[in-house]
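Hey, can you fold this?
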Amino acid sequence: MRSGNRPADGMRPVSLEYGVQPHADGSVLLRIGNTHVLCSVTVEDKVPAFLRGKGQGWLTAEYGMLPCATHSRGRREAVSGMSGRTYEIQRLIGRSLRMMLDLQVLGERTLRIDCDVLNADGGTRCASITGGALAVRMALRRMVVQGQLASMPLLVPVAAVSAGVVGGRPLLDLDYSEDSTADVDANFVMSGDGRWIEVQTTAEGAPFHPDLFMAMARLAAEGGQQLFALWEGEE
């Protein structure tokens, strides 16, 4: 039995709070079950050296977990150094969120996304992408209202959700107890018009058949539609 008596295609409860950090240009606290991620956006009027003079913007992301986000306290990476996992997740978030933007319309600005995991119960990278995208939209809307942008440089909504195979059964939106025992673990990043942006799939114990991958992809597409419904709410 899954947590909350969820069916195989059931998402955990999702809630959203905007403006949690008033000093940020955009901020969102996204809760998916017991995974809680605070995503904030800072707009900088500069770009990395390799983009100077090219008339286009950039987006970059940082990701981290608070020490007590997991069952046992983790060391702050400012003290212990950034792990390979953190570096990989930061790059994934950045790649995914750049897909939602027309960087030429953004102009020579950088959107810096901070994703801080307050509580971790599986799917933190997916929650960071989903929450980060909504925080980016909030920041862009503010820039339009303030006259910094003539139009929204937004191409498509972006969201991400996990899926996996546990005990031979494809499941959507794994929590930690499921993820830690999964036969197959996958993360699906998608656009609001039904296209895939990035798919990460790993066999944890043995190779798996393509039909299981397709089953996970179908579940992820269904879950994505539930997440894109968040875009219809008010900030």
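Oh, and this one too while you're at it.
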Amino acid sequence: MNIKVKLISTEMIQPSSPTPNHLKNFNLCLLDQLIPAPYAPILLFYPNLGDIKVHEKSALLKKSLVDTLYRFYPLAGRFKDELSIDCNDQGVNYVTTNVNCHLIEFLNEPNLESISQFLPCQPPFKVLAAGDYVTNIQINVFKCGGIAIGLCIAHKILDGVGLSTFLKYWAGLACSSNDVQYPNLMANYFFPAEDLWLRDTSMTMWSSMFKKGNFVTRRFVFNASAINNLKTMSTSSHIKHPTKVEVVSSFIWKCSIAASKQKNCSNKRHSNSILTHIVNLRKRAAPSLPENILGNLLWLSSAKNTAKHEMELPDLVNQVRKSISRIDDRYIKRMRSDEGFNLMRKSLKEIGEFCSKGADHYGFTSWCKFGFYDIDFGFGKPIWISSISSRCLFFMNLIILMETKCVDGIEAWVTLDEEEMNMIVGNQELLVFASIDPSPLTIFP
């Protein structure tokens, strides 16, 4: 299907009240320097349910966003520099479009490469600079009255948990709910930033992970039954109760290792590999950091597999769990102490050096348990949550894990070099457990 998106309007949505002068300068926290991506784009697709007309939905979204920005005032500002945001209330870049088809037609066989049309910013995303918008939102209206909400909010201020906090608050106001959670804007208190040393260190690491290739994105969907089978296969004396994120991450890693070996069999070169996971620090600290804190309260875990030792699934799951469990309360205390500079710098340097020696890197991030499928603006819950396709010639192996609508499943958005991807999707073991690019309308427990 040839999807066409027609621009209807572009406007600035400003907070309902001016930001006080003493809050005009918002300092980013140290860990906001870790993630190089300008945005973590997300799309929420809503079917047309009930009797609410499109213009009523549009008015509801705008009015509730205006009131939301009063509390989330940095999102309505502009970047001052790499350390701060000017909370000048200039507003959110808010785009409205019409789509030339019914939502069900698109969801029946979604073209991943056309999804970016539903976003207010088009990939490849440029590096954010002084004066750029912090928040960009696009409301796409399908012929049936269904809606897709596309968001590109600067990753420098929001991680996945923060994005969830923002969306839940916005939706709560739209529904006139009294059960809304105000944002905590004190990330800089927990991890203050005085300069850009972490940006420089992390950029060196990330650059070792990027490579040339013809990168493509495919969706691997694991239902609850498949995940339970993977958990059974992964159980060992070391791992008694593996989580769904642990087993799916490790299984995709296992399939990727096999594809890499197949790809390199002609030159008899077998690469080492490394799996990294973005780890949320909030609940790992003691006492835990506020769940509603805005900022990138994240760190990077790393699990390694050497070509000399072929690991089975339980071994890989054990490696993944051990790597994540190292980031515990004691580790976070050290990050925040005087030794934090050396600790964090050493951690990122070790990952970068391992990758720069030719190891295959697979970067994972999990959007599970963020509650995106519960976000209801008053016209029902989303039928599908999506990321976007990354077809480009210079990228990194990236896997985004998110829950399916039934919650018990996992939808993995996998971006790899096309040659390796073709080998993985032809792997019969993968096909036993995962459906490749199924229609969101057919995903069941």
